[in-house]
Amino acid sequence: MTATIERTFSSLRVPNYRKYFTGQVISITGNWMQIVGEMWLMVKLTGSGVSVGLTAGLQFLPILLFGAWGGLLADRMSKRTLLTFTQMAMVVPAVTLFVLALTGAAQPWMVLALVLVRGSILALDNPARQSFVVEIVGSDRVLNAVALNSVVVHCSRILGPAAAGTIIAVLGIAPCFAVNAASFIAMLIALRTMDASKLHTPKLAERKGGELRSALRYVARTPELRIPLAMMALVGTISFNFQVLLPLLADFTWHGTAATYAGLTAAMGVGSVAGALAAGARGRVSGSLLVLSSLLFGIFLIAAAAAPTLWLQILALVPLGAASVTFAAGVNSSLQIAVEPVMRGRVMALYSIVFLGSTPIGAPLVGWLAEAAGPRAGLVAGGIAALAAAAFAAAAFRRADSYPRQDHGIESAGDGRTQPRSGSGRTPRPQSAGALRLDRR
């Protein structure tokens, strides 16, 4: 038991990561309070599922359009410096929304505009944040660190909505935005006080033409990257739309209040934390894990849609949260392990594009479906997409010869270089030293 606990939290032995972890807990909790505030404000201003879906989608539209350039910037400059800039910039839309909500001047178009501003900053922030983790802990601990980051996100998903629901009920929506603005101070302190000499900083990418095209070609010919990204593109577009569906379930299906919304979100967060902790204790990531987690994700989405009462739906959201974070953390970890360091920012930008940038496409569609056929239909659609992703990946992994997982005493691909298969005549595809055979266990 002690060994399992130590393995689960091994990245916290790294002083820089402890600072980053603490700053993330505070900052992301504030971010979830802002998200709850934005969604609930739009529900009350418009009463429209499409408007709520548009709000969720707009914050990630810049990632879809410009995320690849954000990843390129992360490869070209210090990620720590870039994150310091984005954390300071995030304060502006939070403070502006606070003033608008406090004075009662908020209009739907104003909320949407500020959400778009925040999304534009996220297009720079997210690729740097995703790829900075491995610089803090090194490649040996990346799977554990990614899992602990998921713990942060989903603990914050519990704390943020719970705090936001209480604040909205007692003080109104505006203080949610003020708390988020203040929360960025914690992350700025963490970044400022890190020991730069202990960071695993890779060589920065050279400035030359065609860098984005080369990253796309690199992913296209590397199944260890291509298959997980394809899975996330489908699941991210249709299945990960809880920001849209949970407030609509609370308001339209259960005729509840902000506390109902917070309860649904917190229930899913409990399962997500459990799934993230389990992922942190795991020593490897495999193709079978991604297939299984996507399969379970789809099953639990459909089960949540079928729940006849609020309490049964809350109960169903717990395993749904566990399956969702197991899938997302597995995709993230597999990419971090397989990618060459000089490409990490751009590949993690592609991850952000298919995971978050797909939201502007999926969220309005799911919001429209929820408005036309009810929020339960949105859950069912997500379940079908996750099941389809599992079926696709199972077939694709069988066709592919190898899959990345951590090199912890397991047979690896030698020196990390890929040789052409005997008699195949194929061009070698790039692999990292951790690129291993597909684990079918």
TrEMBL record:
Compartments (UniProt record): Cell membrane
Bilayer-spanning residue ranges: 21-43, 49-70, 82-106, 167-191, 227-246, 258-277, 289-308, 314-335, 347-370, 376-397
Region (Disordered): 403-441
Alphabetically ordered keywords of this record: Cell membrane, Membrane, Transmembrane, Transmembrane helix, Transport
Keyword Transport among record annotations: yes
Keyword Membrane among UniProt keywords: yes
Membrane topology term: Multi-pass membrane protein
Regions annotated as coiled coil: none
Pfam families noted in UniProt: MFS_3
SUPFAM superfamilies: MFS general substrate transporter (SSF103473)
CDD domains, per database record: MFS_MefA_like
Protein known as: Putative MFS family arabinose efflux permease
Gene Ontology annotations for the cellular component aspect, listed alphabetically: plasma membrane
Organism: Solirubrobacter pauli
